[in-house]
Specification:
about 260 residues; about 5% strand; four-stranded parallel β-sheet; Rossmann fold; alpha/beta
């Protein structure tokens, strides 16, 4: 991978899109993770105004600390970067208290987890509309097009996705090239939606290097039946999530009315 050339390509792509769109810059949700760290650094390099928004909802202190340190570092490097912090914990509490009281279940827990992501999306679009900016996606290739590990109309609700064609390993490569903080580079990936320290690997059952491998095998026409042991298990995990989350990765189905019915 030609790191500097790839960075320049993404930055120029962002600049071209933004100039054509007539918008004034970017809104990025910064979580303290590697994907948002790389994304916010890339948009800062465009020279357009960047608003980094931190939106804790009962967040792990380590995640909050990493996000703040990253934004502070960006602000020292770039004069076009500003910071906002919106504590959404009270909003989330009020949202829960407004819902019908139903018994606890796995479905309820997952619904509330996804609601956190959608509250954050709503917050980002509030500032985007206020400032005339684009909401920038932070999803990588494995998450967005492999296992669908994101919330529909949550962190999947964005205007532009500069790193969605990068595998997770490539995200790390470019982040290191740009000097992203070591604390972020070594932190276990997490979506930060559960209010605890569970990682993405805890939830998925496989690491990103494993899922990246599986995604590449699928592109070669391989499946779980072609492997044994841990490799077969990883392929089954990948295939399960890819199949279950396909609705996120494909365009919304549209009922197209036959022309003879419209006469």
């Amino acid at each position: 991978m030609k790191k500097q050339e790839t960075i320049e390509y993404i930055v120029n792509w962002l600049k071209t899109y933004t100039e054509k769109s007539g918008t004034k810059g970017y809104i990025v949700g910064v979580s303290g993770g590697i994907d948002s760290a790389l994304t916010s650094n890339l948009v800062a390099l465009t020279g357009f105004p960047v608003t980094c928004v931190e939106m804790p909802i009962y967040q792990s202190p380590n995640q909050v600390s990493r996000a703040r340190k990253h934004i502070e570092k960006l602000q020292k490097q770039f004069s076009n970067v500003s910071q906002l912090e919106v504590d959404l914990s009270p909003v989330f509490d009020h949202f829960i208290s407004s819902l019908p009281n139903v018994p606890g279940s796995e479905a309820k827990e997952m619904s509330l987890v996804n609601s956190r992501a959608r509250l954050r999306m709503t917050t980002l679009y509030y500032f985007a509309a206020l400032e005339g900016k684009l909401v920038v996606g932070t999803g990588n290739k494995v998450e967005d097009f492999g296992v669908g590990f994101y919330t529909k109309y949550g962190d999947g609700g964005v205007d532009i996705s500069p790193i969605a064609d990068l595998y997770k390993s490539e995200v790390y490569d470019l982040a290191a090239e740009l000097g992203v903080l070591e604390d972020i580079l070594i932190a276990p990936p997490t979506d930060g939606l559960w209010g605890d320290d569970r990682t993405d690997e805890d939830q998925l059952g496989a690491s990103y290097p494993e899922l990246e491998w599986a995604m590449k095998q699928e592109k070669l026409g391989e499946n779980a039946k072609d492997f044994h042991g841990r490799e077969a298990e990883v392929m089954r995990i990948y295939e399960k999530y890819n199949r279950a989350n396909k609705h996120k990765m494909l365009p919304i189905p549209i009922c197209e009315i036959p022309e003879d019915l419209m006469e």
